[in-house]
Amino acid sequence: MSNEETLDPENWDELRTLGHRMLDDMINHQRDIAKIKQAFPTETSIKQICTPLTEDGEGEQAVYEVFRNSIQPHISGSAHPRFWGAVGGTGSPYGMLTSMLNAGLNYATEEPPSVAGYTHKQVIEWIKDLLNYPKEAGGVLVSGGSEANYTGLAVARNACSEVDMKACGMQDVPRRMTMYVSEGGHHCLDRSVELLGIGGNNLRRIETGDDFRIKLDSLEKAIKRDRDEGYHPFCIIGNAGTVDTGAFDDFNVLANIAAREKMWLHIDAAFGGWVKISKTHRHLADGLERADSVAIDLHKWMYMPYGIGCALVRDRVAHYSTFAYGHDAQYIKAHRDLLSESDQLIRPDMLALPLSREWRSLKAYMLLRAYGRGKYGRLIQQNLDQAKYLADLVKDDPDMELTTPVASNVVCFRFNPGGLNEDELDKLNRTIINDIYKVRFWMISDTVVKGRFTLRAAITNHRSKRKDFDYIFNLVKEVGHKHFATLKKF
Ligand SMILES: Cc1ncc(COP(=O)(O)O)c(C=O)c1O
């Protein structure tokens, strides 16, 4: 008898029964998400999880019980209706099912002429259309905002460098290359700049005004100073929704400066770019269509399952030539030589880092097509209206204070009953957030803007209702008053 093995089950009916149970459990998880209480992993769960690997395996059923008993009970996170910490992704029930189809088909590339090539191409077309980005531009789906920024900035570096960057790298640049972003730029930009060999010191952080937008005169001065000193200013990064405050730079002015200075304009629109499909805030992203490249997420404010983002690049050839292999590997050459030039330019494996790719476009394709522009636009608008609702609650209450202007879907605020100096307010609000975290970690989060500690709600959640904002508002006040009363005793 042959002793060849496979990972396919011996008994398909048993697997089917287990699979149906898993599906039911996950649908119930999604249905009941609002009821899930915060529960950090217990000692028992950790012991169950962190165990030596057995030689013979424990079997699918037994390992699923570990998932059910020790993993799933400790998860609710950003899918919960009361999650507005960091910038979270909620996912959705249908999104979950599309991910299952993806894993079921397990198709590794998204290149033409495969059907996956068509879904990828179509999703990029839809995203460009939703963002009003030029039709002639290209793009690629990637793992999220960080990779989308990295992708756009890699193209910027190669396209603007004064040497053949692929051959020489940063070793041979005649002038040090410099980039510019406001002090509100996300820290993943630092990571990209470091990984691209540009060096963190060469990413100039430009101050912002009271509106948290980049100060244009400071930007222009910095570019001029660098040029005068022999540097090579090559890229301006605009923010469409800064992570701390949700502020938007003025992209039309940035595009004018970039054009005049012969620089690349990249926009980090990770979550904020989606204001483009709102009714009330789309003007904030005016001029985004003039950027040379744009990074945007679909797993945050488009509520798709992690991890999916998109890099759009206006110049398809510059994009392709940054990532295409300098050599063409022989084992994949044959069928690629059959592709037309236009198909070459939309090969996702030549537009981003991975060669083997998850079929990300499948979920984006199905979700966008299932819900359409209208539903997504209304959900984005709902979150923007909820941000205003929360901001109004704060504004109208003498014990609460907005700490930054509310430009979009991020509300920065603090408990401020009066009579306390900045240090005391800082301390009091730190105590408040620690108590809030005990109720639910990152229900809201905190940050420091212009040296001031603040509470912060970033609303990218299709499950939140107005009552949830009443809840967090009242909770902050209640916890605030409790700690304020203790303070007064001393
Ligand atoms: C403005 C901004 N840019 C980039 C990122 C990084 O995106 P990701 O977490 O998808 O890698 C984030 C994440 O919150 C963000 O808010």
What would you call the shape? globular
Q: Going across the major beta sheet, what is the strand order?
A: 1-7-6-5-4-2-3
The main β sheet shows up as: 7 strands, mixed
Mean pLDDT: 95
Distance between the termini: 83 Å
CATH architecture of the domain at 99-370, by name, is: 3-Layer(aba) Sandwich
Approximately what portion of the residues adopt beta-strand conformation?
Answer: 5-15%
Name of the CATH first level of the domain at 99-370: Alpha Beta
User: Which fold does the CATH topology of the domain at 99-370 refer to?
Assistant: Aspartate Aminotransferase, domain 2
Count of DSSP H/I helices: 16
Low-confidence stretches: none
Strands, total number: 11
Q: What is Rg? A: 25 Å
Class by alpha and beta content: alpha/beta
Determine the CATH superfamily of the domain at 99-370: Type I PLP-dependent aspartate aminotransferase-like (Major domain)
Report helical residue fraction: 40-55%
Order of helices and strands: HHHHHEHHEHEHEHEEEHHHHEEHEEH
Bound compounds, each kind once, are: pyridoxal-5'-phosphate
Care to describe what's here?
- This protein is of the alpha/beta class and 490 residues long.
- It has a domain at 99-370: Aspartate Aminotransferase, domain 2 (3-Layer(aba) Sandwich), CATH 3.40.640.
- The chain has 16 helices and 11 strands.
- It has helices spanning 12-31, 43-49, 60-71, 93-105, 115-131, 145-160, 165-168, 187-195, 216-228, 251-261, 316-323, 333-336, 341-344, 360-395, 422-439, 466-489, and strands spanning 138-142, 177-182, 203-206, 232-239, 264-268, 293-297, 309-313, 400-402, 410-415, 445-449, 452-458.
- Strands 1-7-6-5-4-2-3 form a 7-stranded mixed sheet, with helices on both faces.
- Strand 8 and strand 9 (410-415) form a beta hairpin.
- Helix 4 (93-105) runs antiparallel to helix 14 (360-395), helix 5 (115-131) runs parallel beside helix 14 (360-395) and helix 6 (145-160) crosses helix 8.
- The longest helix is centred in the C-terminal third of the chain and has 36 residues, at 360-395.
- The radius of gyration is 25 Å and the shape is globular.
- The termini are far apart.
- The chain binds pyridoxal-5'-phosphate.
- The site of pyridoxal-5'-phosphate has 13 residues, from helix 6.
